[in-house]
Amino acid sequence: MEVIIKKDRESAGRLAAKIIAGLINRNPAAVLGLATGSTPLGLYNELVRMHKEESLSFRHVKTFNLDEYIGLDPADPCSFYNEMHTNLLKRIDLAEGAAQIPDGRAKDIVASCEAYEAAIKRAGGIDLQVLGIGHDGHLAFNEPGSSLSSRTRIKTLSKVTIKANARFFGSEERVPKHVMTMGLGTIMEARTCMMLAFGKDKADAVAATVEGPVSASCPASVLQFHQNAIIILDEEAASKLQRHDYYIDVYEDKPDWQRYE
Ligand code: GLP
């Protein structure tokens, strides 16, 4: 795992955008895995800026989102479909049909999840998966207890997640209980996993992910098994890491050819 600690979420978002832009410059037809939530918003704003001001083009890029609520209309302001289009997809030059999001209105959920997995395979797999983390250590909507090799499927949200996401819906009662989510096994097949976490309230989940035992009780800890996982944190989210100073040293002393910025 490469743990990078930036002073604040703004500089962390800029670094994450630089890593994605570097990938697209090397491979204009890159396949990106995208995440919703408040954490990647700075990253998405920076990608939009690079698109507008530095002619970063997404014309040949394909995207796959991690998850979606079951039963919400895509036009619902709280759907991940809506959130993703508003925050990024509408603001860049993706080709028609290049963005895929699990279909929370599918009649046959099992078939729709299988089709989603097949579409990722057909696209050649995900080159870089953007990830946030839940307070309980969830990745996408893989709640604690999720199989570490799970695939795209239906999940029931935990009380912790319902509470955390109620801010978007106005009340806990309005948060759908069921979701469709890529599995941890699906996420682990991405060639690079880039997880972002900001703020004090994520510090425990981050410490468990990076320095705790690998366990389904903290789903994000599965990233310890990933060959190319980049964890980008602000100082607050990194505040409970025992090897905090070592991670800073490693990043400062990177050989030039390994540097992102
Ligand atoms: C949701 C999403 C996750 C996201 C998490 C954290 O439950 N399904 O993909 O990482 O919340 O959200 P936030 O970034 O808003 O803290």
Task: Describe the structure in your own words.
With 261 residues, this protein is of the alpha/beta class. The protein has a single domain (2-258), classed as 3-Layer(aba) Sandwich (Rossmann fold). It has eight helices and ten strands. The strands form two sheets. Strands 1-10-9-6-2-3-5 form a seven-stranded parallel sheet, with helices on both faces. Strand 2 (31-34), helix 2 (41-53) and strand 3 form a beta-alpha-beta unit. Helix 1 (9-26) crosses helix 2. It is globular and about 55 Å long. The model has no long low-confidence stretch (mean pLDDT 97). The structure holds 2-amino-2-deoxy-6-O-phosphono-alpha-D-glucopyranose. Residues 35-39, 66-67, 132-134, 140-141, 161, 165 line the site of 2-amino-2-deoxy-6-O-phosphono-alpha-D-glucopyranose.
Read across the widest sheet, the strand sequence of neighbours is 1-10-9-6-2-3-5
Encode the helix/strand succession as letters: EHEHEEHEHEEHEHEHEH
CATH class: Alpha Beta
Q: How many distinct beta strands?
A: 10
Structural class: alpha/beta
> Helical region count?
8
> What spatial form do the alpha-carbon principal axes imply?
globular
Sequence-ordered SSE layout with sheet pairings:
Elements: E1 2-6, H1 9-26, E2 31-34, H2 41-53, E3 62-65, E4 67-69, H3 80-87, E5 99-100, H4 109-122, E6 128-131, E7 153-156, H5 159-169, E8 178-181, H6 184-188, E9 192-197, H7 203-211, E10 229-234, H8 244-252
Parallel strand pairs: 1-10, 2-3, 2-6, 3-5, 6-9, 9-10
Antiparallel strand pairs: 4-8, 7-8
Helix pairs in contact: 1-2
2-amino-2-deoxy-6-O-phosphono-alpha-D-glucopyranose is lined by residues 35-39, 66-67, 132-134, 140-141, 161, 165.
